[in-house]
Amino acid sequence: MREFLTFVSISIFLAAFAGPRDVRAEGGQTHGGGAIVCRSPNGAITRAEVLDVFEARELYGLNPVAVTDVDATRTAMLGSLRSRYLGKSLYPAYLEQTLAMLHPRFKLLNPGVRLEVIPDAFPKINIRGCEIEQLASFNDDGVILLDREIMGALDPLNRLAIELHESAYLLDRKWRKATNSVFARKLVGFLLADHADPKLDPMIAAYDFDVPHAGIYGVQGSMSCRAEIQLRDDGGLRVYHSPGDCPDRISPTPFEANGYGDFLPTGMPDEWHWTNRKPGQTEGYSLVVLKRLGSGAIDLGGETLTFRTQSTRSVRRPLRTRPAQIHSRPRRR
Fold it and tell me: Same domain, yes or no, for 251 and 199?
């Protein structure tokens, strides 16, 4: 039985895509959002704005949405994205999951401690008399360090903007192999616009996510040991498993409660996982990983299965109110 019972922190997934380490006094720091910061002669902040919001207005002529409640605006924005790209792209689902994954990783620095500027922004404009200062930075353990002073000067719009920036830039590094934040900042600017600008469409289309074929997969040399995959409308996979003549080759744990297991993206390309880990739990839970090995094979908990046939099972959607065709966009090689 291939089942992982040891603690696997989300920070492992984050650190894997943090990029080359840029070592500072407090350890490796690399990638993160910046802000335009204006200060009085005595050093007090008089104005602070996330670079994404500033550039959206000054470079692209966008007016940002009004934000008074960060949580409510985030929820509304993600809902609008899901509706707008339903059946076209899985990006809204990946963005939502990345936001949730990163949220507990934010850490405010102690007063008086500042972040060194990371040279991955390549900004074109600034405000005379102001400076671009580092607001956030991925640490080498997956924690996102935040400048406490600048964060305290941000309004709700800009607090939401830095959340979106870290998530969008992480996805950009993973899926488009981005080495700077220029594209991610522009994308965040359009995400926060007060209207649905059609220029957002080609930016979303730049992300093409591979998912396994829906259908039945079997273990080599066995006619009865198989798994069946259905594509969920949130980027996840619903997996049914029939152990047949190989009951010990694939962990039965994900499938015991409902007859199926829901596997969600880990944040790494071609990888999903099922876990019964509860928030804050650090040991004693199970984790089973599913990996896409190509157009016709998967690795389920360490066992290779190959595609055999289309599914005959009736579609069971985890979100009943949405059509099942959300997976029509992903590319299959």
Answer: no
Q: Percentage helix, strand, coil, to 5, in the chain?
A: 30, 25, 45
Total residue length of the chain: 333
Q: Which long-range contacts (CB under 8 A, 24 or more apart) does 320-326 make?
A: 322/86, 322/233, 323/86, 323/87, 323/233, 324/231, 324/233, 325/87, 326/86, 326/87, 326/90, 326/231, 326/232, 326/233, 326/234
pLDDT in tens, 96-113: 989 998 999 999 999 999
Give the global pTM: 0.64
Do 195 and 229 lie in a common domain?
no
CB within 8 Å of 72: residues ≥ 6 apart: none
Name the residue among 70, 103, 85, 100 with its Cα closest to residue 192.
70
Eight-class DSSP state of 224? S
Tally the domains of the chain. 2
In tens, the pLDDT along 229-254 reads 998 877 789 999 988 878 778 888 99
